[in-house]
Structures are given as structure tokens and as C-alpha cells.
Design goal:
The structure holds two protein chains of two kinds. Chain A is built from eleven helices and 18 strands. By secondary structure, chain A is an alpha/beta fold. In chain A, helix 1 packs parallel to helix 7 and helix 4 crosses helix 11. In chain A, the strands form four sheets. In chain A, strands 1, 2, 6, 7, 8, 9 and 18 form a seven-stranded mixed β-sheet that branches. A six-stranded antiparallel β-sheet of chain A has the order 5-12-13-14-10-17, covered by helices on one side. Chain B is mainly α. Helix content of chain B is 57%, strand content 3%. The longest helix of chain B is centred in the middle third of the chain and has 20 residues. Chains A and B meet through helix 5, strand 11 and helix 9 of A and helix 1, helix 2, helix 4, helix 6 and helix 7 of B. Bound molecules: flavin-adenine dinucleotide and iron/sulfur cluster (SF4). Iron/sulfur cluster binds next to loops of chain A.
Chain lengths: 565, 179
């Protein structure tokens, strides 16, 4: 039987966009299946260029709408009037959690997925991260090490356009960087003071997927220089930040090899008992509810960590009764997110005669400094900090006393430089942090709902506490004033770095995919989104999904060319 | 932003990005071309007199100086939209109760009597939560500094600031960034 396509890619977000680009550029007829609507670069960024006064509630989402339709998504900091159309309506996209536990699943089902919404912080994982499971025994050993990934990080960074600085730190390998979006006055001073006070800690400019100096590769795709609007989540028609729309999809499209099917919900993967391979996928049309199938030689699952888990669990057959490619019973397990939403803020006094131009779309970064060579803390693994500084403006003075002309005038001068440090901690992979399909509840397209059952473990809680306490110590040592801490304990999921529901490992009895993201049980199905992650490190993960996706596509393409797939 | 401003903006972007503007940039920038200041109230709960009182009070918090104040920036309409359309019933009732308590004395008062009333309100402390006046002032400040007048004339605002400069003499900016 002739297949409809060489390759099917499920999902068009960060991972799916990369899979599409790689296969199309290698000459394979590729079908990208996306459950959400089409989003056209530029034209459909309906919130872009809106000034605050053009929005009735000044960019806050109508509260009644938010409460009724977006009770979960509204907890995401990027959920605004100008971005809300890129978030899923929680009523239409339900999932369940056990009584007394919570997990916020923040997402957007549309072409481009969360590549439109992400905060663009992009950090390589280090050899320490890929060795961590082997070192302390939590999670399966990664089949790869940094040296396997380094060339792929190089490869994706050059295409994406990552701005940053070379620092020579083992725990945070350098990359192929465009000029950084650097420090402001207070951050620079803070960095100096930290360097003086600590041997083991260094503050560096964040590394982010913004074009500070576009190269030929970027300009060919119509991408331009970042103008520091920091309203990226509305969409950026300048293409100054990396998204599927600005970069991977147009690159795939210009080859003439890509077909996109939007409004097409992948219901399940079809397993062929005879060939022991997947023959294709079943799709439900999101508008008409009709079913169809597509076939291909190879399938790449890039529906996001939880989206992919849902498809795998829903793909049952005679052979795979508890979920596709799930002889290990690892599908749905070892769910992780980053530990965050705790840290501290403080004031750096001075520099009152200085200011900045632009809304900085980048963070500052303080790379991991604990348990580097050996485990010295009362917890395993570690954490980093992100954050930034700005001079306080009117919004921090809403409860000030006063009225009248002088009061009005006083707002013309900005306040002190406030600095924030927020921890980003590594969460351990635990088998009981698990998603399953709900036994009875389905969504309006008939897909069983995900049931997400996860909680912080003891190690996670220790890291959360350490992140808060060390942030205070760092700020004290750097002479900041008015230091206060914050902590949102009910934040699992809100870091939006969910990972691990189809983990990688060499042993088919323990892991779903091998070192090339290929299912142990079914050789022509690959999982290259966050589901494949065997540990979470503490760096934002999307750059690593890109590197894995490009590497897996290269491997699969070579196997196809020699007739093995 | 007016259509003319947007066209100017496109020119600026073209200069900043080396000239080549893709169709999506143009459509992205122009999509807001006819967007207006938006304060339409779906559930108008204020009477004319109440709206007037709100406008007068807001204007005493942020009066006309070398730049226009709250009334000119239509802050009362913003407050109307919040109270009418954003608030839940109980919050609206609390607000209206607070407003009515100010009512007669303020509107009939002389300038100095008004000032005395405002000073008294400003010094009240809530036993829990916020006093009416604290809420009122908060709405006034948000409404003003996110209005076009407040953001562009009183403070500074740029839709496209240009490449980030992290440490410049304050005079180069001159006033607090509105956002
Ligand atoms: C506000 C925010 C800030 C973030 N900041 C950062 C950051 O700074 N750095 C970082 O590294 N990461 C960040 N992230 C996370 C980042 O967005 C995700 O890691 C990344 O998008 C994951 O890529 P993906 O391709 O796996 O999934 P997604 O980008 O979510 O794409 C998955 C796609 O698959 C589609 N899909 C799902 N199920 C099906 C189905 N059954 N059939 C067909 N299609 C399906 C979805 O509609 C979606 O389009 C952030 C996310 C958000 C929301
Ligand atoms: S900050 Fe840069 S990437 Fe973000 S919207 Fe503005 S120009 Fe685009």
C-alpha cells in the first residue's frame, strides 16, 4: 500500500515545527497535523500594536470571562486581553485532577502551539544534567551525554537566533550566540557585587530567542531585529523572536514538501499487528467531528508532553492494551515541571540619575551552583535563578497617600531599582506523578480527558525552600534593601515546563523511547517533545526539545534512506 | 495610535530593520489602524450626577497641570466601566455605598471644603481590605496612567522603543515610562 505521506508530524508547536522543517528540507513529503485553528503570521496577531487605552480593561482580561472560561489559564502571567486568544478555553478543553491536588496545564491549541506564547529563555543542558539520573539513581540513565547533543545545540541555535554571552561555565555550556540583550545599570551593579561576595555564583544576561543582529539565515525568512516591546506573546510580525510561524514553518513551507492539516485532532495511532509498525493516525475533524485516517512511513509525536501522553494512552489495540508503545508501563509516568514561583525581591539603591530605553524582553540568569561536582546539600540536584530589575513606576504606588498637582507630578520621576530573583529548580522524576485517561469523562470531541495526578516530593520541597532562602542571602550579600520573599506553593504546572511522560532510556523495560527518541516497541514512531525527557534539569527545556527533534529527524531520515524505516 | 502615527511607525521600523518590510509586518502594524480609545460601558450604573462626582473626585487626585488631568483623560469613564462591567454585585454595592457617602457634601462644597473632604478620606485607614477612597484612588491612577494622555503626555510611552539600552542618563528619557 502506498502511504499518503513519508512523515506525519503531530503538533505544530516548538517541536513539531522543527520536525516539519527538518523532514521537508531533506525532501520528505510531510504532513503536519494540528488540532487547533490556523494562525497566520502577522495577520492573526490581533493584539499586536494595541496601546493600553485601546483596550477597555487596559489589557486585563474581562474578569467575568476569565473566571468563567479560563479559570486555569488566567493564572498564567502572559494571559492578557491582547493574548487570550492564544490560550485554551478551559471549558472546552477540560482535564481532571484528584481531590486535594492540582496541576495547571497552560496551553494553546492552534497552529504554532506555545511557540507563540513562550518566554524564549533558552539554555543548554550540561553534561551534569544528562548524567544526573545515573549519578543518584533517580530516573533512568539518559542514553545521551552532552557531547552527543552539542552539535545539535549548535545547529538549532544558529537557525533560531539565540542572544547571549560566552561565560565558560561547565554547568551551562556556551553556544552560538548573537549579541546579548544585556544588563541594565542595576543588574550590572548587582552582578559585580555577587561576583565579589561569592566564588561560586555569577549573574549573567539571560539567553533568549530574540534577534539582536539577524543573520542571512534569519533575514531570508523575513525576520527582523527586536525592538524591545516585550509584548511578544501577542505575536511579533517582525519575526524578531523564534516561533513556528516566524521560523520553522516558513522554512518547511518553502521546500514545497509540507502539507498542514489544521482543526484535525489526532485521536490515536493505528498499529499494524502484521508489520509491527504504526501505519498512520486516526483524526477527528474539530469542526465536523468526522473521522479520517492518514498514513505515513514514519510518525513524529510532537503534541507536547501531555498531548502526546494523551494520544499514546488513547491508542489501544489488541497488542497494546494499556497504551501505545507502552510495554514498559512508563507512558504517563514521571511527570515533572520546574519548581518555581518562589524567590525574593529587593531594592538596589543608587543610580537614580539613570534609566533604560525599551521594555526588556529578556531575563537575568544565575546558573546553578549547588551539588555541581558532588552532592553536598540536603537535597539532590539544584536550581538556578531568573529575574530582572526595573525602576518602580506608578503601578507600585497605587496605595500611596496624597492627591493634587504635586502628587501627580511625583509620578514623573521613577522610583528605586527593584530586583527580583525567582528560583527555577529541578524536579525529580517520580513514577507516581502520573497522567492517565479518565475512566468516564470525555471532551466534546469524544477524547477521554487526561487525569493529572502529581505533587511535589520531599526533595522538591527542600529545593523550593533553599531557592527562597538563598535568594535572600544573595541579596543581603549584595547590599540590597527591603528584601522580601514570596512563595506560591500551589504552582505545579505553572512553570509550563511539563516533561517526562514517555521517558528516554536504554532499557525497553523501563523507558518508552531510545536514545534517538524512537519508540522501543514500534520502530517507526518517534517522540521528540518534552514527553521524552528522563530528567528535568533546571534550565528551560524548549531549546533541548529542538535539539532532540532535529537529531531524531536526522537519524530517522538516514534510516529511511537506507530502507530500514 | 492614529493612522498617521502608524505610517510613521512603519517608516521607523523600515529604517531600524534595514528596509525590507514583509507583508506581515505591514498588516501587523496597520491592523490597529482604526482602533480607538475604548471605554464603552455595557452596564452603566452611574447616574449623570454620580458620573460627574466621580469625574470631579478623580480630577482632584490628578488635576490639570502643564498636562491634562483625569477628567480630560476620561478616567471617570474607565471607572464607570470597571464598576459597571468588571465588578461583581457585592463589589459594586460596596463601591456605590462609598460613593454615596461622599456625595452631597462634596458636590455642594467650596474648593476648600472639597479639599478638606479629600484630605479626610485620604487619611482614613481600613480595618480590613481597602477603604472606598483607596479603591477609588487606585482606579484613578490605573485609569489615568494607562490613558493616552497619562501615558504619552504626562509620562513616556513608546509602542516600538527600539533596541534595548539598559543604562542611559535619565535626561535621555526624561519621565517615567508608563509601561
Ligand atoms: C507563557 C509561557 C512561557 C514559556 N516560557 C518558556 C521559556 O522561557 N523557555 C522555554 O524553554 N520554554 C518556555 N515555555 C514552554 C514552551 O512553550 C514549551 O516547552 C514548548 O512550546 C513545547 O513545545 P511542544 O512542541 O512540545 O509543544 P507545544 O508548543 O505546546 O505544541 C504542541 C502542539 O500540538 C498540538 N496538539 C496537541 N494534541 C494534539 C492532537 N491530539 N492532535 C493534533 N495536534 C495536537 C497543540 O495544539 C499544539 O499546537 C513557556 C510556555 C508558556 C505558555
Ligand atoms: S520584544 Fe522583540 S520579539 Fe518581542 S514583540 Fe517586541 S520586537 Fe518582537
Amino acid at each position: 500500500m502506498a502511504e499518503d505521506f513519508d512523515v506525519i508530524v503531530v503538533g505544530s508547536g516548538i517541536s513539531g515545527g522543527w520536525a516539519a522543517k527538518e523532514f521537508c528540507e531533506k525532501g520528505f513529503k510531510t504532513l503536519v497535523i494540528e488540532r487547533g485553528r490556523h494562525v497566520e503570521h502577522g495577520e492573526d496577531y490581533i493584539g499586536e500594536n494595541k496601546d493600553p487605552w485601546e483596550m477597555k480593561f487596559r489589557d486585563r482580561v474581562d474578569r467575568k470571562l476569565a473566571d468563567q472560561r479560563y479559570p486555569r489559564q488566567k493564572r498564567c502571567y502572559a494571559f492578557k486581553d491582547s493574548t487570550k486568544h492564544f490560550f485554551n478555553d478551559d471549558v472546552d478543553y477540560p482535564y481532571s485532577v484528584p481531590e486535594g491536588r492540582n496541576f495547571e496545564w497552560i496551553r494553546g491549541h492552534h497552529l504554532g502551539g506555545r511557540s507563540l506564547l513562550w518566554h524564549r529563555q533558552s539554555y543548554r543542558w550540561s553534561d551534569m544534567d544528562f548524567s544526573s539520573n545515573a549519578r543518584d539513581g533517580y530516573g533512568t540513565d539518559w542514553p545521551v551525554r552532552y557531547k552527543d547533543m552539542a552539535p545539535w545545540y549548535d545547529y538549532v541555535e544558529e537557525f533560531v537566533g539565540i542572544s547571549g554571552t560566552m561565560e565558560g561555565m561547565d554547568q551551562l555550556p556556551d553556544g552560538k550566540f548573537l549579541p546579548p540583550i544585556g544588563f541594565n545599570c542595576a543588574e550590572e551593579e548587582f552582578a559585580k557585587r555577587i561576583e565579589k561576595a561569592f566564588d561560586d555564583r555569577r549573574l549573567i544576561p539571560g539567553r533568549c530567542a530574540h534577534l539582536t543582529e539577524p543573520t542571512e539565515v534569519h533575514m531570508e525568512l523575513g525576520r527582523g531585529t527586536c525592538q524591545s516591546r516585550n509584548q511578544c506573546q501577542r505575536g511579533c510580525s517582525l519575526g524578531a523572536y523564534f516561533s513556528s510561524q516566524s521560523a520553522t514553518l516558513p522554512a518547511a513551507d518553502r521546500t514545497g514538501n509540507m502539507t498542514i492539516a489544521t482543526d484535525s485532532i489526532v485521536h490515536s495511532i493505528i498499529y499494524d499487528d502484521e508489520t509491527k509498525r504504526a501505519s498512520g493516525v486516526r483524526v477527528v475533524d474539530a469542526n465536523t467531528m468526522e473521522g479520517r485516517t492518514y498514513s505515513a512511513k514514519v510518525i513524529f509525536l510532537c503534541a507536547s508532553t501531555l498531548g502526546t501522553a494523551q494520544v499514546l494512552l488513547n491508542s489501544t489495540s489488541e497488542h497494546f492494551q494499556n497504551g501505545f508503545a507502552n510495554s514498559s508501563d512508563a507512558v504517563g509516568r514521571y511527570l515533572m515541571d520546574h519548581l518555581a514561583f518562589t524567590g525574593a525581591t529587593g531594592e538596589l539603591h543608587g543610580f537614580q540619575d539613570h534609566y533604560y530605553i525599551g521594555r526588556k524582553p529578556n531575563s537575568i540568569y544565575l546558573p546553578r551552583f549547588t551539588n555541581l561536582e558532588r552532592d553536598e546539600e540536603d537535597f539532590l540536584r539544584g536550581y538556578a535563578y531568573q529575574g530582572g530589575s526595573s525602576r518602580l513606576g506608578w503601578s507600585s504606588r497605587l496605595s500611596d497617600k496624597g492627591f493634587g498637582a504635586d502628587f501627580k507630578e511625583s509620578f514623573k520621576t521613577p522610583g528605586v531599582w527593584e530586583i527580583g530573583l525567582e528560583g527555577y529548580g529541578e524536579m525529580l522524576p517520580m513514577a507516581d506523578n502520573r497522567v492517565t485517561l479518565h475512566k468516564t469523562k470525555v471532551d466534546k470531541w469524544g477524547m477521554p480527558q487526561l487525569h493529572i495526578d502529581a505533587k511535589f516530593g520531599e526533595n522538591d520541597k527542600k529545593i523550593r525552600k533553599a531557592m527562597r532562602e538563598e535568594a535572600v542571602k544573595i541579596m543581603q550579600a549584595a547590599g540590597l534593601k527591603n528584601i522580601t520573599t514570596y512563595n506560591t506553593e500551589d504552582s505545579l504546572g505553572l512553570s509550563i515546563h511539563e516533561m517526562g511522560t514517555a521517558r528516554m532510556g536504554n532499557d525497553p523495560r523501563e523507558a518508552v523511547v531510545n536514545g534517538y527518541n524512537q519508540c522501543h516497541d514500534v520502530e517507526n514512531v518517534f517522540i521528540t517533545d518534552g514527553a521524552a525527557m528522563a530528567s528535568s534539569a533546571c534550565q528551560n527545556p524548549s531549546l533541548t526539545y529542538m535539539a532532540f527533534t532535529a537529531r531524531a529527524a536526522d537519524y530517522a531520515a538516514k534510516q529511511m534512506k537506507i530502507g530500514k524505516l | 495610535m492614529s493612522e498617521i502615527d502608524r505610517r510613521q511607525l512603519l517608516k521607523n521600523i523600515a529604517i531600524m530593520t534595514g528596509g525590507a518590510l514583509s507583508a506581515s509586518v505591514v498588516s501587523g502594524v496597520m491592523s490597529g489602524a482604526f482602533a480607538q480609545e475604548r471605554i464603552d460601558v455595557d452596564n452603566p450604573v452611574f447616574s449623570d450626577a454620580e458620573l460627574n462626582l466621580v469625574a470631579e473626585m478623580a480630577d482632584m487626585i490628578i488635576p490639570d497641570t502643564d498636562t491634562p488631568g483625569a477628567k480630560a483623560a476620561k478616567v471617570h469613564q474607565y471607572i464607570h466601566a470597571i464598576v459597571g462591567d468588571w465588578y461583581y454585585d457585592d463589589e459594586r454595592a460596596t463601591f456605590m455605598k462609598g460613593l454615596h457617602a461622599v456625595d452631597s457634601g462634596f458636590m455642594n462644597g467650596s474648593a476648600s471644603e472639597r479639599h478638606a473632604i479629600m484630605t479626610k478620606l485620604d487619611n482614613e485607614e481600613a480595618e480590613e481590605g481597602k477603604t472606598f477612597f483607596q479603591t477609588f484612588k487606585e482606579l484613578t491612577l490605573v485609569g489615568y496612567f494607562s490613558s493616552q494622555i497619562g501615558a504619552e503626555q504626562e509620562l513616556r510611552y513608546e509602542q516600538y522603543p527600539g533596541p534595548y539600552e539598559g543604562c542611559v542618563p535619565f535626561e535621555k528619557v526624561g519621565r517615567t515610562w508608563a509601561t
